[in-house]
Amino acid sequence: MDTYFASPKRTSEEKLFAEIDFVSKNPVISGLLHSISGLLAILDENRQIVALNDSFLQMLGIDDPAKTLGLRPGEALHCIHAYDKPAGCGTTKFCSTCGAAIAIVSSLGQDKPVERMCALSANKDGKVKDTALLVRSQPIKINKKRFLLLFIQDITKQQQRAALERTFFHDINNMLSVLVGASELIVENDPSKLAKTVHQASLRLLKEVAIQRYLSQSESCNYQPMWHDFTTEQILEELRSFFASHPVAYKKNIDFSKDYPVVSIRTDISLLLRVLCNMITNALEATAENGVVKIWIGHEADVLSFYVWNSQEIPQEITYRIFQLNFSTKGQAGRGIGTYSMKLLGEKILGGQVSFTTSGEKGTVFRFSTPCRNS
Q1: 3-class DSSP state for residue 37?
Q2: N or C: which end of the chain has fewer CB within 10 A?
Q3: Which domain holds residue 144?
Q4: For the Histidine kinase domain, which residue ranges apply (predicted)?
């Protein structure tokens, strides 16, 4: 058997040189090779490289493109299985499950673009290195000649991060389940105030981890809220307790209004506190030392509104993107989730409304409104 998967046929040396010359002189191909910032290789119908861009050469660690011309992708990328069969890349028993080989063969057969993820094990300087690549194969016809545009993106870090996140959430949930179960037993045997506090804290932590998982995987993860009745007094007490010794409140004043409506809302308390704490944290971060942040509650008809005020105005250009994911004025990696999560949790799950007003004269007020009922 000459192949386990793709055709073993290779382009003759004479024809290959002609293809390379044709591609090198074609303005369309030349424009693509110079304009695409990612990895791009041009393949002929026998899956052999006839051109590639500088980014691809840098990734391969070579200066002379002639060293790769005529090779197939797996051979150029030093795949450890590329030469398991005499016909090379695409023909070994491993190739039928290779994302790159599948994308290339499928796009040739169907004459349409195909994208797959490729788990590449490459031999680099005598060491095997595993890399995750996103490979897109796009057929193109030029003067009745068919070639493949092979776009490659290194997604190794994204894949590693996703795997670490899945492992973390799996393991931390297992540990927290043990903690919650143990705290329940402690409360049953000794229903002291301390035991109940530990039990409530473990439940809250379990919910916080579930919320964080939802935020990190919001497109594919469904969060199931736990609805219970809470009074405005209980909610304010939770906020006072949270910020009593919080570092962001150091040398700053939080003014909780004593005049608030006595009503109840049916909510997921973990989500509500996440929204309100983000509002207060943002206000404290914008407040100078010895400054004040004001918090009050309003009640109109069947709507309860939580307000957080600070004296600073938000610049107009920032207001347009205040709730956008990954946008932050802090300039640090991992920022830009706080205000986004207010909208996501407060509106999508809790069914409320998050808004703000800002001006130089009146400062900035964030508001979260949610349906309520009289206590």
Answers
A1: coil
A2: N
A3: 13-154
A4: 167-374
Residue-by-residue DSSP string for 205-252: HHHHHHHHHHHHTTTT-------EEEEHHHHHHHHHHHHSS-GGGTT-
- End-of-domain residue from the set 224, 239, 271: 224
Supply the pLDDT for residue 1: 57
CA-to-CA distance for 107 and 2, rounded, in angstroms?
22
3-state secondary structure of 256: strand
> Does 146 have pLDDT greater than 70?
yes
Assess whether 239 and 252 both reside in one domain. Answer: yes
DSSP annotation string for 133-148:
EEEEEEEEEETTEEEE
Give the range among 150-159, 212-221, 288-297, 302-311 with minimum mean pLDDT.
212-221
In a 3-state reduction of DSSP, which class is residue 66? helix
Query: Alpha-carbon distance 85 to 81, whole Å?
Result: 8
Q: Which residue type is seen at 196?
A: K
Considering its fold, how many domains does the chain have in total? 3
Token duo for residue 250: 């150091």
Q: Is the pLDDT of residue 43 over 90?
A: yes
Q: Which residues contact 239 (CB under 8 A, 6 or more apart)?
A: 256, 273, 276, 277, 280, 295
CATH code of 293's domain: 3.30.565.10
Question: Two tokens at 160?
Answer: 């590693």
Would you say how long the chain is, in residues? 375
Cα 187 to the chain's mean position, in Å? 39
Which CATH number covers residue 96? 3.30.450.20
Pairing mode, strands 292-300 and 253-256: parallel
- Token pair for 255: 């003014």
Assess if residue 78 is contained within a domain: yes
Q: To which H or E segment does residue 73 belong?
A: helix 73-76
Q: What are the φ/ψ torsions at residue 75 (nearest 5 degrees)?
A: -70, -40
In a domain, 4, yes or no: no
